[in-house]
Design goal:
The protein has 127 residues and is mostly helical. It has six helices and no strands.
């Protein structure tokens, strides 16, 4: 594993742990955001590993899967599509408020569980 890949993996792990911490404090929108970030960064680590170059500056998880030609299930692609919506491009209150409306503890527990499963699957691609 090259240094860039290791760096992406390390920050991805940090983001996953941050999602867990946000769940325990009830900051549900940030659970979802950090789940998206953890998957984005591990995908960028896979990109750095496979291509031996810096990954594209994108937050679109499905684009990263596509450009890497990763063989993942349709179910997992649907989940990544769901996570895509939680990238917080805007920090304006009215936009965050709309996104936060559908994010409660139950949904975040599911998002976090599915993120951990996807993350573990993706990490196997680096071993």
């Amino acid at each position: 594993m090259n240094k860039a890949t290791g760096d992406w993996l390390k920050i991805s792990e940090y983001d996953l742990k941050t999602a867990e911490a946000m769940l325990s404090t009830g900051r549900y929108l940030y659970v979802a955001f950090m789940c998206q970030q953890a998957i984005e960064k591990i995908l960028k680590g896979i990109y750095a590993d496979k291509k031996n170059e810096a990954p594209p500056r994108t937050h679109n998880l499905l684009y990263l899967v596509d450009v890497l030609s990763l063989d993942i299930s349709d179910t997992r692609k649907i989940f990544l599509s769901e996570l895509n919506q939680f990238y917080l491009e805007s920090r304006y209150p009215n936009e965050q408020g709309k996104l936060a409306e559908g994010v409660d503890r139950d949904r975040c527990e599911i998002l976090l569980s599915k993120t951990k499963e996807a993350w573990t699957c993706l990490k196997q691609m680096l071993l």
